[in-house]
Amino acid sequence: MSDVLKNIEYLVGRKFPGSNAPPPLSSGHAAGLMWQTRQESIAEYRAQLSLLSANEVTRRVRRECESEAAQDRAQREVRTPPAVAPEAAFWIHREEWPVVSGALLLLNVEPRRGLGAVIRDVMTATHRKLVNPATYDSESEFLSIKESCTRLSDFAQGLVDDVHNIVTNVGAAARQQNLHVFSGNVVEPRKFLLWARDRGHTIPAPLAVLTQDVPSIGELQARIRQLETDRDNAWDQFEPNSSFYPRELDIAFQAWRAVCNESPASKGTPRQRLERWIRNGYPDLLTEEVERIAIVANFRKQRGKKKASNPGE
Fold first, then answer.
1. Highest-confidence segment of 16-25, 52-61, 283-292
2. Which range is least confidently modeled, 111-125, 131-145, 211-225, 294-308?
3. Does a structural domain hold residue 227?
4. Tens of pLDDT along 119-133?
5. Residue of 279, 218, 221 lying closest to 251 (CA atoms)
6. What's this model's pTM, rounded to 2 decimal places?
7. 57, 78, 99: which is the final residue of a domain?
8. N or C: which end of the chain has fewer CB within 10 A?
9. Rounded to an integer, what distance in angstroms lies between the CA atom of residue 278 and that of residue 121?
10. Are 198 and 179 within 8 A, CB to CB?
C-alpha cells in the first residue's frame, strides 16, 4: 500500500472509528440498515479523499495528528490537573493549621481557595473541548468528551475522598496520641507535616522547610565553641611535606604554645623552659639549634644590657 493510500485510510479511520468492522452478527433489519448506511458514508468519504492531491492529503493528515495530540494533552490535563499551589509565605508562619487546611496543603491545594478552584481548572480544560467546533467533526472526538466528563467526576470524587481520609487519619492518630490535635481541631504545622511524611505523604516543596531539622540551643552553642576553637587553632600546624616547610619555626611555635600553657609555678625563665621543652621534644637538635629556636619563641625579652642575675633571659 502506497503512502497516499495509508494516509487516506488513516483519515477515514479518524472520522469513522471502526471503519473496517464487519456487519453486525445479530442482523436485525435496523442494525443492518445502520451498518449499510455507515459503509456508504465511509465509501463516499474515501472517494472524496482519493480526488485530492498527495500534498493535500498529507496536509490533512498532519492537521489530524495535531488534533489527536491536542486531545491527548487535554485528557492528561484531566488526569493530572494543575494544582492551586499553597501560598507558602502565608502558611509557614502560622503557629497552627486547621486540620482540613493541613489536608489540603498536603494535596498541594491552597486552602483559602479550596477544592473548587482545582475542580474549576479541570472543568475549564473540559469546557474548551465542549465549545470547540472540531470536537463534533468525528465520532472519536465526540466520544472523547464523554471520557473527559467521566474522568472529571472521578477526579472530583477522588480529591474529596483524599481530604476525608487525611482528616480521618489525623483523628485516629490523635486518639492514639501519635499526633496532638489542639482544641478547635487545629494542629501544629511542623508536627503535622512530620507525621504525614512518616505515613508516606509527599510534602509539597514550598512547605518542606518546616520539616527540616532545627538544632537546639545547646547544639548551636557547641557549634560556636567549636568554631572558636578552630579559629584559635588556625595556625596549629604547618605543612611538613611542603617545600616551604619552616621546621625550626614550627618547633618554635609548638614550644611557645606548650610553655604558655604550663603552670605558672614551672621552674626557670621562659627561655629556660623553652629550651627544656625543645630538648625533650626534639633530642636530635644541636645545642645551637635549640638556642636559636628558643630565642625566636621567647616571649619575655629584655632590651639593653643583660642583668647578671638573670643569665637565662
1. 283-292
2. 131-145
3. no
4. 776 666 666 666 666
5. 279
6. 0.39
7. 78
8. N
9. 81
10. no
